[in-house]
Amino acid sequence: MNTDIITRFFVRTAPVGCCIFVSKTILMTRFLLLQGLLFLTSISMIAQEKIKIGVFVYPEMELQDFAGPTDVFVKANRFTSDQYELLLFSSDGQAIKTEKNTVHIQPTYSFETLPKVDLVLVPGTPIEVATTLSKDKDIIAFLQHQKEQGTTMVSVCTGAYFLAAAGLLDGHRFTTHYLDAMQLGKALPSAEVVLNVRFVDSGQVLTASGITSGIDLALYLVEQYSGKEVQEKIAAIMQYDYHIEQQWPEVK
To answer: Would the pTM count as exceeding 0.90?
Structure first.
C-alpha cells in the first residue's frame, strides 16, 4: 500500500495537536538528515585536502628513487580529486640527468621559485655522489629552511645523507639503504638508525631504505592522506606487495 496516502489520511483525520507533532517530527528528521549530509561533506573535503609535494631532482639521481614514489602519487590522483600536486625542482631550475646520464628531466622550479609545499621528497643517488653533493651549502640551507617552515621532509635510499648533512635527522629515528645504514648511523650519534624496515615515520621526518622502498613509503603517505582503500587500489594497479618490515640481506 502507498505509505504516502496513509500519511496524508492520518494528517487530515488526526487531531490538530497530533498534526503539529507529526509536522515537527518531519522537520526534525529533515534537519538531522541535512546535518548528516553536511558532516559527511566536510569529512570528504578534509580527506581530499590538496597535498603539494616538492620533488628534488639533481644530477646523478637514482631513477627508481624518483620514479617509484612519484608514480604512486600520480596513480593516487585517479582515485581522488587530483589530491596530489607534484612540483619538480632543482637547485637552479635547470635540467638534470639521472644516474649514468640515462634520463633527462626538466624541472619547473628552483630553490628560489618553489611555491610553499607540504612535503619535500629527496631521492637517493650512488653513495659516492650522496656523500659529496649532500655537503653543498645551498642544498643544506634549502632543506633547513623547509623544515623550519614545518614542511614534512622525506628521503628515499641515500637521500637520507642530504637530510643528515642538514642536521634534520638529529633526534629522529631513520633508515637508509641497507649497505649504508650502519655507516650513517655511526656518524649520527644523536639519531637512531632502524634496520630491517622499508621505511620509518619519525614525525616531520620520514625515511625509506633502499630504492624500491620509496614506493612503500609513498603508499604509506597515501594511506595517511587519502585512506586505506585508495592505498590498496594503487598497490593493486601497480601489482606491488606493500609492506613495512623486511629482513635485509647480509652485508658482506
So the answer is: no
